[in-house]
Write a structure and sequence with these properties.
The complex is a heterotrimer of chains A (563), B (353) and C (345). Helices cover 34% and strands 26% of the residues of chain A. Chain A is α/β, with parallel strands linked by helices and 563 residues long. In chain A, a hairpin with a 2-residue loop joins strand 4 and strand 5. The longest helix of chain A has 20 residues. The chains are: A alpha/beta (563), B mainly alpha (353), C mainly alpha (345). At the B-C interface, helix 7, helix 8 and helix 14 of B face helix 6, helix 7 and helix 14 of C.
Chain lengths: 563, 353, 345
């Protein structure tokens, strides 16, 4: 194994198309032989930094140095032999097998005239073995589960045979079990294969549990760096993510539990009757059923959450209730009326939907988007009433989107954009609101903000909300009623306190954890088990972490004004 | 416009006004309204110019006087017999084509679609060319072209239907049908002697040369029905642009709306083809120009698109008739004028982004 | 090689079939080539067709017909078919759009335009004189499209290329129609060329265009590994050390070279470039090394079949091959659109 190259960003400023700087005057040394995580709120420039460091984009000022030389002076192939980069948006034609994909990772090692040789096959086999996809080698990538697919892509990067790996949000779309699978892989590669790993991560707790070194970014600058222990401080998290949190320390390390701003408000009313009742729903795309005879109810005036691993059918359930999909069997009623009764317009006055990853037309402004929510109350000859205006204003107000009501939606950050969509759904003024993974792309601060908003609406106006949520802990905290799904069936349903247990989490998500009761809210808390204490296992850590500390101090002195 | 100026414009509030009469209320964007007025004035000016030019030149005064019914005999004859119907026809053709393009581009949410690309023009062309080459009575050609266009539109729609309409599928199938019919036309052209094919070839590039009051009446009646329908549909189209899922979650019956849109769009272009033959490029270009000036498609911008199309075709027709010693069919000129402008827009958008 | 569960079925069956299918296709291609030598307004026996190739007797009328008319025609069909199919596969990879064909650059439009201009101004009548105008016209249009699309930052994106291609094509098309309307003679000459045909070409035409086609086909075959990497998306390709702009430009250049040569030799022939890569993928899967190899064989196979069919259905005259490919290719495209989930344009 070759020694890890030295990769550093020096005084780097990056901007897109000469607009605002995404990253400004930043110094960053990649600690060699370690796992480094870059974390920070949405739009802090963490992915941009990683892209610049892997030569995918050019900084406006400053330079990225690879082994002391500006990275753009290296040939592209040289860089690709030293750095393996897994980017965020991956695309692949249909029917490419895992082995075929991994073989393509050998590209930098082969010239145009050279057929693949024995050493290429050796490297490919080794990469598949390391990533644990050897058994899947002849399967087509588009048939794999999310975690397997991500591992196949990592195997592709491994076949590049680089001493350093850069992974841009490798866990974004994955559920707990799958993201753990990927992170464990990253760790194994570091421990057993001595790869230097740099990851951009979404989840604070993942970063703490799986990395040796953490870099915290905000507004294009590094605000803190150090070992996981140093980052574990509530004040830092408040400053960076804008969210209060408690730090729980246990044998496994520490765990950060974000607190909502209005934790004291609790909804005590409602729940006497069911707002939504579905009876033995069977829904499928093509021949394979995604939902298999699901019967489920959601209580009126309460916050409900639907949780489950990837592809368990939770989004399909929500879409079916929102009348977007037709069930082949079974029926659903909302407040006692079957959903297919009445016109589309009529139904849109009863149930609203905040859908996932909606397309954004160019140049539409926030207010225009929110105005679309009033569509069910309008006619083409009666386009606007005072009531419409009032509801739009109210929706903008309650989602705190008033300040940018005339900005184009495309220019908003992830959190702002999600709030704008929520405002549109609220302007629709429906007693029932379905939210399909509203928090997926948001950082922890924005997640809390959005969920606080929904729970506030629930308390204030008795809105019945059904949310598909990714994060089990957040679901436990906010939901009054929870439905856990697995393989198209309901695995458990009830109040979180009643249904969430260690065995339930193991059964549904396939991960081990410990469940404790959060004293502040009385809701269950899910703490991950294992893995964390192995962090200190490697003796080489000390040496490299002092190295990192040294690098850090060098950077700090560099940052001080010279004159 | 510089990048920063554009930024400012996006940040600032558009000047929206709500117009109310009892239960009826319209949202009006003052900027769009002023654009509409300016374009309308330009259109009237262009129409005056079109009626002045020709082998028998007239002054502005004579044209206006004649149109208003106070002109002299000679001018009256030229204007009322020849130029006025032609000018009206051209304006309405341009408007109809531009609307049709805007509707298709919105309905399948793809800026590259127009009725000519998905085979509607080719359907009319095949029918008409066949008719001309087999020496059938010429009078039936408009009806035949209309039927050809409408049946191709229905065929494309039916073939694209698979539980729902997907924009990508509709375009693909349209391109396929277009090529199929195009091959049919080529086949007819090589089968028949060149003397006969010449008049057929002349039909394949649209022209307003022979338009009379019957054409004006036909277009006026059809537009009188279709324009209000299309404007009403724009209110839904605006929501449809947010994506199928969102549109349905706010209560838009999406497939029904799409069917209506495609039906109205096809009918508009079918009437235009029936009157003048397939005129290319207006349907594709006019909505782009309108959107680049006035922003995303709304009812107001739609009317602006209509006027842009009318103005565009009017100017093209003036060039086609008077710029060269020989008078060309207008269909040749629309591309010659539209394409460089479009390439320039493309170049400018590239340079800015 | 073990397959896991039933999910591996598609890819496994694909792998088994690739080599035997190749043999079948070669045999079919030879068979169709022989038919192409035999069939026409006057049919020729197998013996005469083969004798004309291997032991030519210039006193036999049949053998002279084969030698002077049908051999060039078959050779050009082989070359044009291969060039168009490979060019189509390469364009689909570069633009990552299953609908892209070699015609995306307005090559057909440019070739037709310059040719018409030459006929209009210079009264050309013979196909031999056509090829250079067609070739230069095609190349010029492609260069214009590429220049417009690559203006500004970001380089030529697939969408910009498609847009510029459509516009340039229709612009040149309208000017061409204007000339044809003004000059009846020109229309008489050009209309047969516009239909796309292999008939009436000298063997010399083949020798003129062959070098371009060979350079193009060999070049794309050598770059098939690059095509595989491009299919992984721009970011990944760059992360793997590919110089995307250079690779894109090179491939585009080769495509224009091949297509220009094909159009020069046979006129605009649609759908071969679009359909063949799709048909081929059913057998080869997504690996471009195999796709290109198959395209080299399946392209000529389809084009010659269409040409022979055109001679058979309209006896004693014939149907131009461009019309046959459009009439059969378009339903195939429609079928394809209904079968698969095709990415939005």
């Amino acid at each position: 194994m070759t020694t890890s190259p030295q990769l550093r960003a020096s005084n780097v400023t990056i901007s897109y198309n000469g607009a605002l700087d995404i990253v400004s005057d930043l110094d960053f040394d990649v600690p060699q032989g370690q796992i480094t995580s870059i974390i920070g709120p949405n739009g802090c420039g963490k992915s941009t930094l990683l892209r610049a460091m892997s030569r995918l984009m050019k900084p406006r000022l400053g330079s990225v140095l690879l082994d002391g030389q500006a990275i753009h002076q290296h040939s592209t192939r040289e860089v690709a032999k030293m750095l393996g980069m897994l980017s965020q948006q991956l695309e692949l034609p249909e029917m490419v097998t895992v082995e075929d994909l991994v073989r393509r990772g050998r590209y930098p090692h082969r010239s145009m005239w050279q057929p693949p040789g024995h050493d290429d096959q050796v490297a490919v086999d080794r990469a598949m073995l390391l990533a644990g996809v050897t058994d899947l080698r002849s399967r087509s990538v588009d048939e794999l589960s999310g975690g397997q697919r991500q591992r196949a892509w990592i195997a592709m990067v491994l076949a590049q045979d680089t001493p350093m790996l850069l992974l841009d949000e490798p866990t974004t779309y994955l559920d707990i079990a799958h993201s753990r699978e990927v992170l464990e892989l990253a760790k194994r590669l570091n421990r057993e294969d001595e790869k230097t790993v740099v990851m951009v991560l979404h989840d604070l707790n993942d970063a703490v549990r799986y990395s040796d070194h953490i870099v915290v970014m905000k507004d294009g600058e590094i605000v803190e760096r150090g070992g996981p222990q140093e980052i574990a401080n509530a004040e830092l998290i408040r400053n960076v993510f804008g969210v209060e949190c408690d730090i729980v320390k246990d044998a496994n390390g520490w765990f950060c539990i974000p607190r909502s701003k209005n934790a004291s408000i609790r909804n005590t009313t409602g729940g006497e009757s069911d707002a939504v009742a579905s009876e033995s729903l069977t829904v499928g795309y093509g021949r394979v059923p995604v939902l298999k005879s699901v019967s489920v109810t959601f209580p009126d005036g309460k916050l409900s959450a639907v949780v489950g691993p990837n592809a368990c059918g939770k989004s399909t359930l929500v879409k079916t209730i929102a009348r977007l999909l037709k069930s082949s069997e079974g029926s659903t009623s909302v407040h006692g009326r079957p959903i297919f009764e009445g016109s589309h317009r009529d139904f849109a006055q009863r149930v609203g939907l905040l859908s996932q990853g909606a397309a954004i037309p160019t140049d539409i402004r926030v207010q225009e988007l929110v105005m679309s929510g009033r569509f069910p109350y309008q006619r083409w000859y009666r386009q606007w009433s005072n009531e419409d205006q009032g509801e739009v204003d109210k929706a903008l107000q309650s989602t705190h989107t008033e300040e940018f009501r005339w900005r184009s939606v495309a220019t908003l950050s992830g959190g702002q954009r999600q709030r704008a969509w929520l405002a549109m759904a609220l302007a629709q003024q429906t007693p029932v609101l379905m939210l399909d993974e509203p928090t997926t792309f948001l950082d922890i601060g924005h997640q809390i903000e959005l969920l606080d908003l929904v729970s506030e609406m629930n308390c204030r106006s008795g809105l019945t909300a059904v949310m598909v949520l990714h994060d089990l802990s957040l679901a436990c905290r906010y939901a009054d009623y929870m439905v856990a799904m697995k393989d198209g069936r309901v695995a458990a349903a009830g109040a979180p306190e009643q249904i969430v247990s260690e065995s339930m989490v193991r059964e549904v998500f396939g991960v081990d954890c410990s469940v404790v009761t959060d004293e502040q809210t009385g809701r269950p808390l899910i703490l991950p088990l294992g893995t964390a204490n192995s962090l200190q296992a490697r003796p080489a850590d000390d040496a490299s972490s002092t190295g990192a500390a040294r690098n850090g101090s060098v950077n700090r002195t560099l940052k001080e004004p010279v004159g | 416009m510089t990048a920063s100026a554009r930024q400012v414009e996006l940040m600032s509030a558009p000047r929206l006004r709500v117009l109310r009469f009892g239960g009826v209320a319209f949202v009006i964007n003052l900027r769009t309204l002023s654009l509409i007025l300016v374009t309308f004035v330009l259109l009237v000016a262009a129409a005056c110019l079109a009626m002045m030019l020709g082998s028998f030149r007239l002054t502005v005064g004579e044209v206006v006087g004649s149109v208003l019914g106070t002109g002299n005999g000679e001018a009256d004859f030229v204007i009322w017999r020849l130029r006025f119907p032609r000018t009206l026809t051209v304006a309405m053709l341009g408007g109809a084509l531009a609307m049709s393009g805007a509707i298709f581009q919105g309905a399948v949410r793809n800026p590259l679609v127009s009725p000519d690309i998905i085979g509607i023009n080719a359907g009319a062309t095949l029918a008409a060319v066949f008719w001309i080459l087999t020496d059938m009575p010429q009078g039936a050609i408009p009806l035949l072209a209309f039927v050809g266009a409408m049946s191709v539109a229905s065929l494309v729609y039916l073939l694209s239907w698979k539980g729902h309409i997907s924009g990508g599928r509709l375009i693909l199938i349209g391109i396929g049908i277009n090529a199929l019919l195009g091959a049919g036309v080529t086949f007819l052209f090589v089968r028949y002697p060149v003397q006969q094919t010449r008049s057929a070839l002349a039909w394949t590039v649209g022209t307003a040369n022979n338009s009379d009051w019957a054409d004006v009446r036909l277009l006026a009646y059809s537009l009188a029905i279709l324009i209000p329908l299309a404007v009403a549909l724009m209110w839904s189209l605006r929501v449809m642009q947010l994506g199928d899922t969102t549109a349905r979650s706010v209560g838009l019956p999406i497939e029904r709306t799409r069917l209506l849109l495609i039906a109205v769009g096809s009918t508009l272009s079918a009437f235009a083809i029936a009157v003048a033959g397939p005129i290319g490029f207006v349907a594709l270009t006019a909505p782009h120009i309108a959107r680049m000036i006035a922003g995303p498609m709304t009812s107001g911008v739609f009317i602006f698109t209509l006027l842009v199309g009318a103005l565009f075709l009017m100017l093209s027709d003036i060039v086609a008739q008077h710029a060269l010693p020989v008078s060309l069919p207008v269909g040749v000129v629309t591309a010659a004028i539209g394409a460089p402008y479009f390439l320039f827009l493309l170049y400018r958008v590239n340079a800015r982004v | 090689m073990t397959t896991i569960k039933s999910a591996g079925r598609r890819s496994a069956s694909v792998r088994l079939g690739r080599r035997p299918a190749l043999v079948v296709i070669v045999v079919l291609l030879l068979f169709v080539a022989l038919l192409s030598l035999r069939i026409g307004s006057a049919d020729v026996s197998n013996g005469d067709a083969l004798d004309a190739l291997f032991s030519f007797d210039d006193s036999s009328y049949d053998q002279v017909v084969v030698r002077s008319l049908r051999v060039p025609r078959t050779l050009i069909g082989l070359g044009v078919g291969a060039a168009l199919a490979v060019a189509g596969a390469a364009m689909q990879a570069v633009t990552r759009n299953p609908l892209a064909g070699p015609s995306i650059f307005g090559i057909n439009g440019g070739a037709a335009f310059l040719l018409t201009l030459a006929v209009f101004v210079g009264n050309l009548t013979h196909p031999m004189q056509f090829i250079w105008f067609a070739f230069i016209g095609g190349f010029g249009a492609a260069a214009l499209v590429y220049a417009v699309a690559s203006a500004g930052a970001g380089g030529p994106s697939p969408v910009k290329l498609a847009l510029a291609g459509v516009i340039v094509s229709s612009l040149l098309g309208s000017w061409m129609t204007a000339m044809l309307l003004l000059d009846e003679q020109a229309f008489e000459v050009v209309r047969f060329w516009l239909a796309g045909s292999l008939a009436g070409r000298d063997v010399e035409v083949f020798w003129w265009v062959m070098p371009f086609m060979i350079v193009g086909v060999v070049g794309i075959a050598l770059m098939s590994n690059q095509l595989n990497i491009l299919a992984l998306g721009e970011d990944t390709a760059r992360a793997l050390g590919m110089r995307i702009r250079l690779v894109r430009f090179t491939i585009t250049f080769l495509v224009v070279l091949m297509t220009g040569a094909a159009v020069a030799a046979a006129g605009p022939i649609g759908f071969v470039g679009l359909a063949v890569p799709h048909i081929v993928r059913v057998v080869t899967g997504p690996d471009y090394r195999w796709i290109v190899l198959y395209c080299v064989l399946v392209g000529p196979l389809l084009l010659l079949t269409a040409d022979v069919a055109g001679r058979v259905v309209a006896r004693p005259s014939e149907l131009q091959v461009g019309i046959v490919t459009a009439l059969t290719g378009a339903p195939f495209l429609i079928f394809l659109a209904r079968q698969r989930r095709i990415a939005e344009l």
